[in-house]
Amino acid sequence: MANSSKNMEQHHIESSPLVIEDSFEGYPLNYFNLPLHYRDDLKSVLIPYGLVQDRIEALASRIFSDLHIHIPEQLICMCVLKGGYRFFSDLVSKIQNENRLRNDRSLPMSLEFIRVRSYVNDRSTEAIDIIGISDLSSLNNKHLLIIEDIIDTGVTMVALKKELEKYNPKTIHVVSLFTKRRTDKKCIFKPDYSGFEVPDHFIVGYALDYNEYFRDLEHICVMKESGITKYKVQDGDKVE
């Protein structure tokens, strides 16, 4: 009975995001090796790279345990570019490791890539552009795992999932490395799997960008207001 309770507790921990409290301001920059060209634009390191990797490994194990039994067919892993490419690559690699380690059953996977644009400067917009699979009808009766970097308002993911549902996939699961705890409005979408729940800061690093800057940071960092102003898109400019 004790072992059963322990297993249930472990299941709960693995299924829930690691919560970064509002009171945590991050680690001082001078404890980390950061690119010189960004140091004046950052306030702190919110989540070090090593912790990101450990959390992705736990997510991969959880996803494999949940899906390899219930999905006998191929799982389509769909990367939401550009911000999701690092998370996508590391997560898929770690799920592949689970395939090699488990002897009872494996989880066949195929890979797809789409682009969804919804950010201008530091704000998510309701209008989205979706670029990617040429024949969306190929998703009919398939199992999808959408792999996203961050869910902020949830508007983008709600729109994306609604669009994909038109093509009648058998199942859709969503995993996001980060979900943001908004102070101005409630997030309208909850992913099936989430790595971290973070405060309402504008974060960059590990392929999360601000107008195409900061993707080359390894750690997840909080931006200064001066940095947000410095890299802000001016009227008439367009960021792809």
TrEMBL record:
In alphabetical order, the GO MF annotations are: hypoxanthine phosphoribosyltransferase activity; magnesium ion binding; nucleotide binding
Q: Which GO terms describe its biological process?
A: GMP salvage; guanine salvage; hypoxanthine metabolic process; IMP salvage; purine ribonucleoside salvage
Q: Which UniProt keywords apply?
A: Cytoplasm, Glycosyltransferase, Magnesium, Metal-binding, Nucleotide-binding, Purine salvage, Transferase
Enzymatic reactions: IMP + diphosphate = hypoxanthine + 5-phospho-alpha-D-ribose 1-diphosphate
Q: Which Pfam families match?
A: Pribosyltran
Domain of life where this protein originates: Eukaryota
Q: Specify the pathway.
A: Purine metabolism; IMP biosynthesis via salvage pathway; IMP from hypoxanthine: step 1/1
Enzymatic class: transferase
GO cellular component, as recorded: cytosol
Enzyme Commission (EC) number: 2.4.2.8
Q: Where does the record say this protein resides?
A: Cytoplasm
Chief location category: cytoplasm
Cofactors required: Mg(2+)
Which parts of the sequence belong to the Phosphoribosyltransferase domain? Answer: 54-210
Homology family: Belongs to the purine/pyrimidine phosphoribosyltransferase family.
Q: PANTHER family, alphabetically?
A: HYPOXANTHINE PHOSPHORIBOSYLTRANSFERASE, HYPOXANTHINE-GUANINE PHOSPHORIBOSYLTRANSFERASE
UniProt-recorded name of the protein = Hypoxanthine phosphoribosyltransferase
Q: Which organism is it from?
A: Adineta ricciae
